C-alpha cells in the first residue's frame, strides 16, 4: 500500500471536512416527509389500479349480482386463527399526505394516530418493544381467535375483534386489538408476543383507519404512569355506538 | 437506533464522510449534497443499519453511488450543451492540493472509487470488491492503474516535488 498516497488523500479529506448544513432534526423530518409521500403515492397507485380493474371488470363481465355485498365472504373468512386470513389492504381511500405517523408512547401508554390519542393497556407490551424502533402494519384481522395452549395449561379461548398485526423486522408480532375479553387468554400467545390492548371503540377506529405498510414509531416520554390501568375510550372522531366493553368479560 | 443516537452518528460522521466524498468528487458542495442525501435515506433504515453494525460504510456507499449517478447525468447534459462550459460554483482546493484533486478527477470513476476506498477509507481489497461489486482481481488492477495514472499526472504537474511517488503495491 502506498503510504504517501494515503497520507496525501487523508490530508486532502481532512482539509475539506465540512459541518452539516442541516441539523439532524431536519434530516429526520425530510426523511419522514419523503416516506409519507412515497406511501401516499403507492396508495394512490393501488387505488388507480384497483379502480381501473373494477371498471374493466364492470364493463366487460357484468357478472356480479345486484345487491350482493362483495365484502361478505371476505368478512366471514377472517374468523379463525391469527394467521387465517388477514384482510387485503384497503386502497380506495387515501389520507392526505400530511397525515402524521402513528406513535406508540411506552411512557404515556398511548397510541397516537391521525390526531387521535388512544389509551393502551400496559401489561403486555412484549419484551422487545423499545424506543426508537418502528413497527409496520403487516395485516389486519377483523376477528382473531386466541386458542388455549395445553403446554402452558392455558385453557382460555377468546375471540379478539379488530386486531392489527404489527411487526418489526422478523421479530414476533405485536397485536393491537380490542381488550374485550378475558385477558388470561393472552397466555395463549407466545411469551415474546406483544399485545396492545385498546378499548373496543379505539380498536375499531384504529383497525378501520390504519393501512398495511404504515409505520408505528415507538417512543417513551418520561412521564408518571397513568393511574387507571384499564383503557378508556378516547374522544375520537368515531361517532359509532359502542358494541362492546373494555372489561374482561369474554366476548362471544 | 434512537433519534439521539442517529443525531450523534450524523454529527460525528458527516464531516468525515464529506472529506472522503470530496476526495472522490473533487467538489465540496457536491460532497455535502450527496452525504446529506445519503443520511436522509439512512433514517428510514436506521434499525437495519445498526443491526448490520456498519452504518457509516452504508452511508458512504450510498453517497458514492449518488455522486456517480450525478456525474453521469452531468456528463449527458454536457454532451447536449458541449459548446458552453460548466460554471464554477464552489471554490476549489488550495494550490497545494489542487494538483491531487485535478489528478483524481482525471481518473475513471471505478479507479477513483477504488483508490479512495482503499487508500483513504482503509478498506481492504476484498472489502472494496464487496462494496463495488467487482472481483478482487479487478479491484487490484483498478488500484494499480489508478496509482500509476495519479503518479504520472502529479509528476507532470509537480515535476519538482510530487505529492507522492508510486512505490507500493496492493497487498
UniProtKB/TrEMBL annotation, chain B:
Keyword Transmembrane helix: no
Span of domain RNA polymerase sigma factor 70 region 4 type: 98-150
Keyword tags: DNA-binding, Sigma factor, Transcription, Transcription regulation
Gene3D superfamilies associated with the record: 1.10.1740.10, Winged helix-like DNA-binding domain superfamily/Winged helix DNA-binding domain
Location of the RNA polymerase sigma-70 region domain: 13-76
Protein name, entry field: SigE family RNA polymerase sigma factor
Family per record: Belongs to the sigma-70 factor family. ECF subfamily.
The keyword DNA-binding is annotated on this UniProt entry: yes
PANTHER family: ECF RNA POLYMERASE SIGMA FACTOR SIGM (PTHR43133:SF50), RNA POLYMERASE ECF-TYPE SIGMA FACTO (PTHR43133)
Signal peptide range: none
